[in-house]
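INFO  loader      accepted 1 record
INFO  loader      residues=340
INFO  predictor   begin
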Amino acid sequence: MGKIGEFLKKKQITLSPKTYFIDALGAMAFGLFASLLIGTIFGTLGDKTGVAFFTTIATYAKAATGPALGVSIAFALKAPQLVLLSTVAVGVAGNELGGPVGAFVSAVIATELGKLVSKETRVDILVTPGVTIITGVVAAQLIGPGVSAFMTGFGNLVKTATEMQPFAMGILVSALIGVALTLPISSAAICIMLGLDGLAGGAATAGCCAQMIGFAVLSFKENGVGGLLAQGLGTSMLQMGNIVKNPKIWIAPTLTSMITGPIATVVFRMQNIPTGSGMGTCGLVGPIGVLTAMGAAPWYQTWGAILLVCFLLPAALTYVFGMGLRKIGWIGEGDLKLNV
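INFO  predictor   done
INFO  writer      dumping tokens
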């Protein structure tokens, strides 16, 4: 057992939930952003402005989703060069046969098996890419469709429940996806894997915006304009270290998400597309997704949802809750200070 452990360590293979569900899944979000998400943004710009070049960019960017997923996951798993490049083909197969979740599963399996044989033979140039691509494609064929079907089915269950019980599910979806956004996992990847759109996508957006805008405003005293932009347009995950030290700082934005969620679903009937529902205000992807999903709705309904649910209410509510928490001593001086 000791020799096996030493061999795995030499190959930089760490069999742990953190490796696959935090590191790899988090890297997957970057792959999605560099292809599908940025393509969605340009696609929306093309639709709204009529500029054909934006649509062209969107087409090519979205087409690169599979390769981007494969490479991003392999990079997070510290793949050698040949393994890394071979996951381009694996990502294509995984994404086509099982969507993003298929690409994730096949890329993880292919990368780890490719790492096992990397530089172990004199014909490494053939063996390593061969093993990586073969195992990845087989995994994509055997596992991808089933896992994707399960995630799609679960996502449909959440969406149906939200349609039937928009108030209760608005609270639940908003709070859970918002928390996922701040945790070191990918809320964007989760929402895309689940295909979370419609009202459920709107609730998820509300929760993500509550965390990002909420923490940005809540910590303005400590972090100034730089922190406001880093969290409001970047990610609230920056606060994770501070949350570990004092979990009570998470109360204000989470309470806010539990209010803005049902406002989104019941009052504004806010909707989003899967590529935008888990992004919040990061790069304004969430609001752009709302624009795309609510294209047929009256302009005042769409823009009212974006301005109030995505920006104004998260800022105001979190600020008020934060004042109360500071007053009773649950948030202390420097508790929200970012070390960036």
